[in-house]
Amino acid sequence: MSALSDRLSTRLVGVDVARCLALLGMMATHVLDPVDASGELTRIQAVAGGRSAALFAVLAGVSLALMTGRQEPVRGQVLASRSLGLVARAVLIGALGLVLGSLGTNIAIILTYYGMLFLLAIPFLGLRARWLWLLGVVWIVVGPLLSQVVRPLLPARQFSSPDPAQLLEPGRLLAELLFTGYYPAVPWLAYVLIGMAIGRLDLRNRLVVTMLWTGGVIISVSATWLSDRLVRLPSVAEVLLRTYPGLDIDGALTAMSHGLYGQTPVDGGWQWLLVVAPHSTTPFDLAQTIGSSMFVIGACQMIALRLPDRWRTGMAVLFGAGTMTLTLYTLHVVMKTDAVWPRETPDTYVFHVLVVMGIGALVTAWGRSGPLEWLVGRPAAWLRRTEPRPELSSSG
Fold first, then answer.
1. Is residue 358 part of a domain?
2. Is 323:364 a contact under the CB 8 Å cutoff?
3. What 3-state DSSP class applies to 41?
4. 339 is a domain residue
5. Does residue 365 contact residue 320 with C-beta atoms inside 8 Å?
6. 116 and 185 in contact (C-beta within 8 Å)?
7. What DSSP string runs through 120-131?
8. How many domains does the chain have?
9. Which of 193, 195, 196, 212 is nearest to 204 (CA)?
10. 18 domain-assigned
């Protein structure tokens, strides 16, 4: 146990737990029925729908900050090396996403968009926390506004996940990855910027972590409350109801709560930017899901900081799936194919959880990384060997 504790001492265990929860939430939205027998949204879907994918993206930003200096961003040749390594990582993850998109699982595969987000984040790797917070807040508004203007000019989206065949239409594929797909990278850059800002904080400081999760609650609740008031204004409700003929505003909001496939209607008015709904990618939706992500990350890290070392080690092993989410997300998608798991029912969610949690715990206890994490990290690891070593100061 002592050797394992020593290996885990440099990790932010609470961040790993948050990654695990994001993975479990995404799996739940893929496997469990979104509505119950009466047609009402299930509690799991109400909690995880939209939020787990957003948490996944915010944690991507946290990881980028941790890889590029944590509180003090790297500079010069080191920054160039890390940026090049990130390009390689993004390409490999994006390619894996295309392969998974060809399996016909009816899952909106996030990995190709994830790779694009990494590429968009590269210009911001050298920024400190305060600038990342500022840019992230600005982009919560600017990103959806830009999408609202650009999307009508782009090719109509395809609702299948990006796959290798779409490489034959690079313009359409790029439009989907950036603006029109399930996880549009341009407005979603807000998640990564805020995640990078979080990763630049001292996440071992209890006061900082407390401010993180309490601030997340305030942001999420405020965005939801304000959106609800605004969409009920007669001038706003009138526009929204054009998409839901025969419903009142409460019925329309209920329908929206089932999800909007990545963005608001292309032919909708600006009033749609006031909506909070899963995968609507509006300023209010981004703010609400960023707030919930801040809460999860902060709460998990606070719990980890308060636990004795032995319990923290146990927590790290139990939620070890959070250290290898790329491998286990891929395994989950493969398990969803008919060739691997032909009788897919909501009951199989338990088996998905047991498989990913069991593998994650074993690999963490063994002190290893996931195979796909190792693979996509090879170029960056090689480039790090070429980085200049810090000079040792001498005395006397």
1. yes
2. yes
3. strand
4. yes
5. yes
6. yes
7. HHGGGTT--HHH
8. 1
9. 212
10. yes
Distance between CA atoms of residues 55 and 294, nearest Å: 8
Residue 62 lies in a domain: no
Supply the pLDDT for residue 337: 87
pLDDT above 70: residue 2? no
| HSE-CB for 396 with a 13 A CA cutoff | 0
Cα angle, residue 258 at apex, residues 144 and 149 outer, rounded to 5°: 20
Secondary structure class of 342 (helix, strand, coil): coil
Residue 335: partners with Cβ closer than 8 Å, 6 or more residues away: 341, 352, 355
Mean of all residue pLDDT scores within the chain: 92
Q: Which parts of 68-205 fold into alpha helices (H)?
A: 76-101, 111-121, 129-150, 170-175, 185-199
Judge whether residue 393 has pLDDT over 80.
no
- The one-letter amino acid code at 305 reads L
Q: Name the nearest CA neighbour of 4 among 338, 376, 315.
A: 315
C-alpha pair distances (Å), 346 with each of 49, 248, 355, 381: 16, 32, 15, 40
- What tens digit of pLDDT does each residue of 76-90 get? 999 999 999 999 999
Task: Show the domain range for 325.
Answer: 1-49+310-369
Percentage of the chain exceeding pLDDT 70: 94
Give the pLDDT of residue 221.
98
**Sorting pLDDT into bands at 50, 70 and 90, what band is 396?**
very low
